[in-house]
């Protein structure tokens, strides 16, 4: 559990369908509830299986709070990163619990000019271990070249 910081405004646009809700008048900027519903839809689209999942979003502080129980530390980290790498989110308050706790991964913020091989060389001493990082970030990454500056990635031990 903890509070994770992300760079607001550079993440991917959240195009996941929102969870159903009553339709209020749509303002120019999405409401905090609309963003929370879209984040909830994004998490569900990952297919990671979270029991008791709830997401709230505070538009004043750009803080997303996630609650629920996941099976693995990897699933928990993927959910935090999926939410944090969305353009409206600056912080994620992780209040999820893990059924079978295990060591946490390191997080790495992508810099301009980075690729998975370069990051792999930095962490593992071998650029050919890039697939380890790619697999650790699936389904968030669709291919190994799908990274952008400011994005936060999981680096497994």
TrEMBL record:
Pfam families linked: BON, LysM
SMART domains registered for this protein in UniProt: LysM (SM00257)
Annotated LysM domain residues: 106-155
NCBIfam families named among the record's database cross-references: PRK11198.1
Coiled coil: none
Gene3D superfamilies recorded: LysM domain (3.10.350.10)
Superkingdom of the organism of origin: Bacteria
Name of this chain's protein: Peptidoglycan-binding protein LysM
InterPro entries tied to this protein: Bact_Kbp, BON_dom, LysM, LysM_dom_sf
Disordered: annotated segments: 12-31
